[in-house]
Amino acid sequence: MFPTRETLIERLRALLAGADRAEIASWAEQYMLDGEDERVTDDEAWDVLQAMTGADAPTTDRDYLYGPVDFEAWLARLT
């Protein structure tokens, strides 16, 4: 079952509080893989979940591709 907006918000707040990025990215990815055939009606939540799969993505000019500013923007999309 696709996570609720409330669950996504909780996970984003956890990222902002310093939670393990890899754990949250893996959690989000699992929903993306499991939900392929499921009809998703909340496109905004789907887009945020998809973005969350990259929470631990490295980049060449800094530690991570996404940071607190991105997490805040994703959170704003859900509230």
Runs in which pLDDT lies below 50 for 5 or more consecutive residues are none
Strand content: under 5%
Helical content (DSSP H or I, runs of 4+): 55-70%
Structural class, by secondary structure, is: mainly alpha
What integer is the average pLDDT?
91
Could you give the count of β-strands? 0
Largest sheet: none
What is the helix tally? Answer: 4
Distance between the termini: 21 Å
Shape: globular
Question: SSE string, helix = H, strand = E?
Answer: HHHH
Using only CA atoms, what is the Rg? 12 Å
Count of all domains: 1
Question: How does this structure look, described?
Answer:
There is one protein chain. This protein is mainly α. The chain is 59% helix and 0% strand. It has helices at residues 5-16, 21-34, 43-52, 68-78. It has one domain (5-78). It contains 4 helices and no strands. The two termini are 21 Å apart.
How would you sum up this structure in a few lines?
The protein is 59% helix and 0% strand. By secondary structure, the protein is mainly α. The longest helix has 14 residues, at 21-34.
Kindly list the characteristics that best describe this protein.
single chain; 79 residues; mainly alpha; 4 helices; 59% helix; 0% strand; globular
Strand and helix map with partners:
Layout: H1 5-16, H2 21-34, H3 43-52, H4 68-78
